């Protein structure tokens, strides 16, 4: 039987650990990219009438982010920061926000 990295669980664990470490040490997006992300987020929020997320949605989003390796709870003075998009925890309060890697989405809003 051929044993390669697809069949050796130890190698998979090693690879997964290395990937996780890279995620943990990855820098946030550049200031320019963060500005673009922020402007896009604000534009989407404005286009839907500045609607805030419900408390249930906010709690679900925070619970998801707290388990995510991209989440840095101490950044932005304790508001927390997603190192994938660079946004602060404030994004979880906006109905139109979504996770950049699809872990949570925007609330369903009227199409008006
Ligand atoms: S928004 Fe998504 S990628 Fe960012 S910390 Fe939360 S779950 Fe992770």
What does this entry look like structurally?
The protein is mainly alpha-helical and 112 residues long. It has one domain. It has three helices and two strands. A two-stranded antiparallel ribbon has the order 1-2. Strand 1 and strand 2 (81-82) form a beta hairpin. The mean pLDDT is 86.
| Global shape | globular
Terminal Cα separation, in Å? 61 Å
* Helix-residue proportion: 40-55%
Which cofactors or ions or other ligands sit in this model? Answer: iron/sulfur cluster
Which descriptors apply to this entry?
two-stranded antiparallel sheet; binds iron/sulfur cluster; mainly alpha; single chain; 112 residues
In short:
By secondary structure, this protein is mainly alpha-helical.
List the helices and strands and how they pair.
Layout: H1 9-25, H2 31-47, H3 55-66, E1 71-72, E2 81-82
Antiparallel strand pairs: 1-2
Bound molecules: iron/sulfur cluster.
């Amino acid at each position: 039987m051929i044993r390669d990295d697809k069949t050796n669980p130890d190698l998979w664990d090693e690879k997964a650990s290395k990937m996780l470490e890279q995620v943990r040490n990855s820098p946030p997006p550049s200031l320019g990219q963060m500005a673009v992300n922020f402007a896009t987020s604000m534009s989407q929020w404005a286009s839907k009438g500045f609607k805030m997320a419900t408390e249930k949605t906010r709690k679900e989003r925070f619970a998801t982010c707290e388990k995510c390796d991209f989440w840095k709870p101490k950044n932005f003075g304790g508001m927390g920061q997603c190192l994938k998009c660079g946004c602060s925890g404030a994004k979880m309060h906006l109905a139109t926000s979504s996770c950049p890697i699809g872990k949570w989405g925007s609330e369903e809003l009227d199409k008006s």
